[in-house]
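Two proteins follow. First one:
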Amino acid sequence: MSKEEKIKNFDPNGVGLKNGHFIGLPFEEEDAQLILMPVPWDVTVSYSDGTATAPENILEASSQLDLLDPDVPDAWQLGLYFRKPSTEYLFKNQQLRQQAITYIDFLEQGGQIEENAQMLECLTTINAECNKLKSWVKKECLAILDSGKKVGIVGGEHSSPLGLLEALAERYDHFGILQIDAHMDLRKAYEGFTYSHASIFYNALQIPAISQLTQVGIRDYCEEEVAVANTSGRTTTFFNHEIKRAIFEGKTYLQIVNQIISTLPQNVYISFDIDGLQPNLCPGTGTPVPGGLDFEEAIFLIHAVVNSGRKIIGFDLCEVAGIGNEWDANVGARVLYRLSNAAMKGGGDVVM
């Protein structure tokens, strides 16, 4: 059956189908314009884990979504396909996470890895396996890009999309990142993990093609990260307290959004950590922080990027809580759908 026939035979007003597809959509990967690639990984999380099963949680919750997107008419027809999570990497994650818990507890008790051969071996193993994961993500994403489709990563912890960023760097001479997040994630090898969830944007800034990192909603950070941002020459941070104080003093959110967008180049990658939202929308996320954007503020910002004429070349949604956190999945699925639609509406065919 062709894509056109599938669209014709699908009822967007009908019962939410539990057919194993995101929102019960009728498409297979070959029909899709955008592929959602799950990365079931939370080995390096430093507080609460569980986000490794977020892709499964989001997929299950998505059958309850209604399909009308007020910003993208007939969005469901564009072609969206959510791959099944890798059982191999989910199993490997479960094994390594137990080792990581022991290792992190050792550090929190004041342990020094240089004095403990077992802990040093544990760290070496985890770093090697995280590197393998990054390489796998990059390889899979390159294949998807080569097929003419776009990619959205569904984490998993926030280290998950680094392979996609490396893949995009092989397709674009330069691009910017719009990061919605509670944290700067600019620590170098946090807790010794080269590919820590708290180090994703430190690592991203090592990629020369990334010409700009614009951070929005930041409200939990350390001096090291501020120093990295201030010296990178490519980072602009819109701290949450600065955004709110500007609004309190009479500035409109639209004015702030226009200022945010003005920092971005033509090609934009969006990295959406769910804890960038207010914690009542993501109570089960690993590191919730008071404050943040509400749902509509985040969606408005994303579509303002599209409406500015910029191109969304890829994205990720990370740190949504896993199985057992239905509300988090409910919100996460809606963020993912609106973000996917914006990315498909927002082109991505311009190479600069």
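Second one, unrelated to the first:
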Amino acid sequence: MGFGVLTLKSGIIGARGVGKSTVFHALTGLAPIAGQGDAKNRARPGNIKVADPRLDFLEATYGSAKKVPVELTVLDFAPNPKEQKEGAALDPSLLPLIRDLDALMIVIPEFAGHEVPLVAAIESVEGELIFADFDQTERRLERLKKEKGNIDFERGGLEKCLKWLEEGKPLRTLELTAQELAAFSSFGFLSRKPVIAVINCDADRATAEMAAADRAALTARGLDAFRLAATFESELWELDAAGQSELLHDAGLTQPARDRLITALYEYLGLITFYTAGEPEAHAWSLRRGASALEAAGRIHSDIARGFIRAEVVSYADFFELRSDAKVKEAGKLRLEGRDYVMEDGDIIHIRFKV
């Protein structure tokens, strides 16, 4: 089992003129990349720190010297008009740059004068991802014809993928075995990546419900959607906290888009948050839902996982009610768990380990 950092890195893609750079600024507060970037320097990363009241409470209660929230890295890409012609769904030169991302955000315009049919726009961009995967799979199958050894398993799995792609279906909707997923993990299949459709709309439509037919079509493709008034959200960065709160309230929103996006991504990617806390540091960690205490230990440090003895765990709800380690122990709410314990969202954990 491999441990290491679970990143949350997402790239913004889509057709020209849909507001990708405005979405990037709305989420990160950073200016987009000016002009055209070369092949090595086209991506600009921006980090979004996750607003987390639970982490704030732990920091205050323990008097922690440092607070470390979960972060999402969002990538904006400099335009390349030579590669992405007007009306093209996607810049093909971006494909190698997005293979190592955890998720993709496809921007769909729904602001005045730029409305496009949601499902058609998604299918257009996804078609480019599917075609790239088809080409990669076909080339690999050709190479396998020249190789010797036990390659029947890989050939069979790739042929299954190729048939699915030929039908215009993204690989995220193809059921693969755990063995096949492991075998193809290094391929970086683009149409297997989680995708959120970011609907870039006007402020008065930021809370609008999606049409049932559109929702059903996205669900069938394994996608989720998120509404964002990018121009409006960009204006929030010019205001102080009070001004932001007032403007959001007037728009019928309770949080800025960057916080709502994190929630949407967590739900879509099947993630939870657990915590380590004490006087030196209050730290929030992301973890896949259903992961074990041993995997949580690996998120903190690989040495802690290797020397795992047991985990001392208390739920956030119990700690919030009792408000101290001593009272948690006195009430019998501190649990000793083994390496196979399934972590729950909000767990506060202390790992006992040997070096």
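SUMMARY FIELD: Confidence is low (pLDDT under 50) at residues 1-5. The radius of gyration is 23 Å.
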